[in-house]
Each structure stands twice: as C-alpha cells, then as structure tokens.
Write a structure and sequence with these properties.
Elements (H helix, E strand, L loop, with lengths): L11 H26 L12 H7 L4 H23 L2 E3 L2 E2 L4 H14 L14 H25 L6 E3 L12 E2 L10 H23 L5
Parallel strand pairs: 1-3
Antiparallel strand pairs: 1-2, 3-4
Length: 210
C-alpha cells in the first residue's frame, strides 16, 4: 500500500494547535451570536442534548459517571477515530469534528441550555468560567488530542468533498495493520483518554457540588 499518500499535517502537537485554534475561533463566534440573538434555553430540546438528558435521568453518581464516559469516550471518541479513517484531498475527516463541537458548545453556553445545571446560579463570573474550563475545556482538549493522534488511520482517500462530483469514489491507500503511531501520538492518545475520564468525573460532580 502507498502510505506516502497519507498527509499528517506536521507533528501531533502542531495538529492539536491547528484544531484548537479552529475550535476557539468558531466557539467564540457562536457564543456571541447565541448570547445576543437566541433565547435562553434554546438548545435544551435539541437532539444534541439527548445524551445529557439520558445521563441526568440516571439514579446515582456512578451510573451518571459511567453513562457520561460511555457517551463521550465510547461513542464520540470512537466517532472521532472512525472519521479519521477517511481523508479528502489529504485532510482527515476528523478535523470536521472541531468546528462541530465549537458550534454546539457555543450555542449551549451562549443560551445557558445545560440540562443538569444553570449558569445563572453562579454570581461570580470567574467561578463559572473556571468551572466551564475544567469540564468543557478539558473535554474538548481530550477530543482534539484523540483526533490529532489518529490522523494516520486515513485508510480511504477521496478526491472531492462532493458525493456527486464524479471524483468522490474512495481509494484505499493502506491497511490498518500498517499504521504505526509515533511515541508522541501514543502519548497524545493516552492523554486524551485520561482527560476524557477527568472531564466526565467533573461533569458528573458539578450538579451535586462535589
């Protein structure tokens, strides 16, 4: 297989900076738009909040923690890796997850649409920001680390983003068994998983003030 066709866009931490910059810019724009132009609670009934509603209905702390981890790491983490199986013109499809996360989180925070908490109960702005960073910020960093660490899984290459362009048919350029992650990529992947666990614990503990 021709693995030279796989573009990894520099080292893993260079990829992380690109992804984080894309996320931060998109989040800021969506937050401002949501805060000024959308009603409070706008996202609470959206499909994006379904996972939060399922977790909130769990009867105990540890069942909520397990569900949060299952959704964030088991489901979303798997989606991030599987997305990287596909690259379009050398760009990993997993990179699309960064702006999607930014749009979702920006709208949720900007409209105070949390299921298990309410930002209005925090009179101290710095407290609310610190709490948000220790949960949403850590969770986002974990996702981006996992994405940045697995771009070499680009098994299928596409020549166009448009399905009906005539050039959309994928080309298999390598097998998964040929993938060799660097030490830095392994560290990033492990760190992403650990941060996901920390974020899940913090998110579960937030409503009860642990």
């Amino acid at each position: 297989m021709n693995t030279s066709a796989i573009k990894t866009h520099g080292g893993v931490f260079q990829r992380l900076l690109v992804l984080y910059g894309l996320f931060a810019l998109t989040f800021d724009i969506c937050f401002v738009v949501a805060y000024y132009f959308l009603p409070e609670g706008f996202m609470r009934s959206s499909p994006q909040m379904a996972g939060g509603e399922i977790v909130a209905s769990a009867p105990s702390f540890w069942s909520q923690f397990g569900l949060t981890l299952l959704i964030n790491l088991g489901l979303m983490g798997t989606v991030a890796v599987l997305a990287n199986f596909n690259q379009v013109k050398g760009i990993p499809a997993g990179y699309l997850i960064a702006p999607v996360l930014a749009i979702t989180q920006g709208l949720i925070v900007g409209t105070n649409s949390f299921v298990a908490d309410n930002l209005d109960r925090y009179s101290n702005v710095r407290e609310a920001m610190a709490l948000g960073t220790s949960i949403g910020g850590v969770e986002t960093l974990a996702f981006l680390l996992i994405i940045a660490a697995t771009v070499k899984y680009g098994v299928y290459q596409y020549r166009s983003w448009w399905r009906w362009s005539g050039e959309w048919k994928p080309t298999k350029v390598m097998n998964l068994r040929d993938v060799r992650l660097s030490k830095a990529e392994i560290v990033a992947l492990v760190l992403g998983v650990l941060l996901m666990i920390v974020a899940a614990y913090r998110e579960t503990a937030m409503p009860v003030g642990l």
